[in-house]
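Notes to self, Galactose mutarotase:
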Amino acid sequence: MVTLKFENQEVKVDAGELVGYQVDGLEFIHQKGEPGWRNADTEMFPIIGPTAEARFQVQTPRDIAVQDQHGLLREMDYELVEQNGNTALFRKEYKARTPVLNSKYPEKSNKKYLFWTYDFGFEKRFDLSGEGLSIAFTVKGERDTPFMLGYHPAFKLYTDTPEIIVKDKSLTLQEVLDVGSRALHVPDCEEIVLKDREQLRIRTEGFGNFMLWTEVRNMVCIEPITFYPYAVDQHRLHEGFQFLKDSEKTFKVHINKV
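result:
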C-alpha cells in the first residue's frame, strides 16, 4: 500500500489502484467490499466496452486481437517505479501477442487468454498537491499504435440525492441508474462536478468525453473516455481507435474538493 499526504489530503494506492482519497478525513472513493463494484478504479485499454457479441475479436490494422470487456490492461500487474511523499509512478509493459490470462474465464467468457497485436507501455502517475489529486496516464508505443483509453473510478456517495453537474445541467443519480449497463454518455465534456455531502470536481485533459454508471445508490462511476463504445456495433469497435502520433501520449484527470 502506497500512502501520499499533502496538508489535509491523503491518498492510498494499492498495487496501482486508487483505493482512497480523503480530504479533511472525508473519503471520496468507493470502498471495496461495499455494494456496487468489486474495484475502486481501473483503466480501460486498449479498447473500451464489451466484445462478446463480436466473439471477443477486435480488428486492428495489424490483425485480429482477442479482447474481453474493457481490454486486457486491467488483467496485468503494475510495477511501482517511483515513490516519494506526494508522488507515485506505476508502470505496465506488454509485448505484442503475449497471452494474458482472462479473469472472466470461464464464468463470463469462453476466452481463457487475451492478446493485443502491438507492443505498448503504460504509466500511471499520482501527484498530490494543494490543487488536489492529479492522475496522469501515459501510453507509449510505436507510431500509429491504435488504442482507446478510459479511466473507471468509483466515487462514494453519502446522501440520497446527489447531483452530477455537467455544463450547468444537473443530472440525478436516478437518470444514471435508468440507463443501466450501457452507461450514460456525456459527450464533448472535460469537467464534471459531483455534489453530495461535499462537492468534488473531476477535470480531464485529452479524453473529451465521460460516461456515468452505477447499479446502486451508494456509489457512482464518473469515467473519462476517449470513445463511447455503444455508439457503434461491437463488430465495429475499431472505429473508435486513436493512433499514437509520436512515441507517447499523456492523458490527465484532476480531482479536487470544491
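- The longest strand covers residues 120-129.
- The helical segments are 173-179.
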